[in-house]
Amino acid sequence: MTPVPTCIHAAPWVVPVCSPIIAEGGVAVGDGRIVAVDVLPRLQQLYPQAEVRMYPGSILTPALVNGHTHLELSHLAALTATAMTDRFTDWISRLLQLREILGADGEPAWQAARLVADRQYQSGVSALCDIGNTSMGGRLADLFPGYLLACKEYLGLAAWTLEKNLTRLGLEPPQVRCCGHAPYSTHPRLLQRLKERARALEHVFSIHTAEPAAEADMIREGRGELVDFIRQRGFWDNSFVSGQSDGSIHYLYDLGLLDEQTLCVHAIHVTEEEMRIMAGEGSKVCLCSGSNRFLGVGTAPVARYLDHGILPALGTDSLASNPELSLWREMSILAEDHPEIEAAEIFAMATLGGAEALGLGRVLGTLEAGKAADLLIVPSPPSPVDPKGIMTHLVTAGPAMSPDRIAFRG
């Protein structure tokens, strides 16, 4: 039964994402759900009993969705205090060393993670996917006002780690989401078991994919920077068989890991054929432009993803690889790196793309009937603009953007 609207939220501009911008529009809300989105006069005619709340000088948009972050690494922000000058594996080494010194889940780590989670919500993020190795994500999920999907990440490439990891995985409660770290760090049989479990439980399966170019060297030829790094750490036992797949996405496809609930994070070094595979399987992509820029690992082929019908999500990654965690900043970086992409498409990535990637498309991502009444009230530009100017403003304002919000959990 459709609820009767009790309130109409109205502003000079309404951005549904799923349909064109509405000038002098409104969002009719009842029982915590959106009932209708239209121009204000029509909504008032349809629902004369509803209270009208005006937000002059504002834009109404859906809440944002952060498709990938690591909250438990928030206390490692010292890693991004200075510019990155070394290799990807050198950064991994420094991360592991600093985490060993500061601890993985002590009180300082908890307080830093909680602060970042709070700031994410305050900045307009209503849902995020948090990847971690500790219980911190689950604890944060209980406190987060929106939707926090906590995923426990499994690592272990060497054959001698496999049985222990499979046993541990078998003991996980069904409510715990589990995922693999990356092709270069997780045994293929463990990845398959993780995906089988995620598929059975209908959980999102997130995995770092094609982030450094060296991952392809390892998969195709069994050599390169990552192989050297893994060998130095004592986890290269020659059980990984290279040359069987032509790239990271091919590798995941050959293992049977790709479907509509698979979220490939970063996905920078991906071929045209691999994009066709992803599109055919319905797999999702999450871009982390700020992290990619800091680490110097490259720029994702965003326009080509769109050409293949793949609307990526956006993620911030962690303070260990990104100096500032803000989806507004991620949008502005994406606009700088890809001026050929329309601002409306970039904003759709930060809303609809993220919601669909996390399996929340039925409740978040757009302003349309039936979805949660979770809206942002964003200050509009001072001078009169057109719809295209409004979208450019949303995408390029950067982390200075400070929206208010209307959030119901009906």
Question: How would you portray this structure in words?
Answer:
Helix 14 packs across helix 15. The longest helix has 16 residues, at 107-122. The mean pLDDT is 96. A hairpin with a 2-residue loop joins strand 2 (22-30) and strand 3. By secondary structure, the protein is α/β, with parallel strands linked by helices. The chain has two domains: 7-63 and 365-407, Roll (Urease, subunit C, domain 1); 64-357, Alpha-Beta Barrel (TIM Barrel), CATH 3.20.20.140. It is built from 15 helices and 15 strands. The strands form three sheets. Strands 1, 2, 3, 4, 5, 14 and 15 form a seven-stranded mixed β-sheet that branches. A four-stranded parallel β-sheet has the order 6-7-8-9. The protein has a four-stranded parallel β-sheet with strand order 10-11-12-13. The two termini are 14 Å apart. It has helices at 40-46, 88-102, 107-122, 136-143, 162-170, 188-201, 214-221, 225-232, 248-254, 272-281, 289-295, 302-307, 327-337, 343-357, 387-396, and strands at 7-14, 22-30, 33-39, 51-54, 58-62, 64-69, 125-132, 147-154, 177-180, 205-209, 262-266, 284-287, 313-314, 374-379, 404-407.
Short summary:
With 410 residues, the protein is of the alpha/beta class. It has helices spanning 40-46, 88-102, 107-122, 136-143, 162-170, 188-201, 214-221, 225-232, 248-254, 272-281, 289-295, 302-307, 327-337, 343-357, 387-396; strands spanning 7-14, 22-30, 33-39, 51-54, 58-62, 64-69, 125-132, 147-154, 177-180, 205-209, 262-266, 284-287, 313-314, 374-379, 404-407. Strands 1, 2, 3, 4, 5, 14 and 15 form a seven-stranded mixed sheet that branches. Strands 6-7-8-9 form a four-stranded parallel sheet.
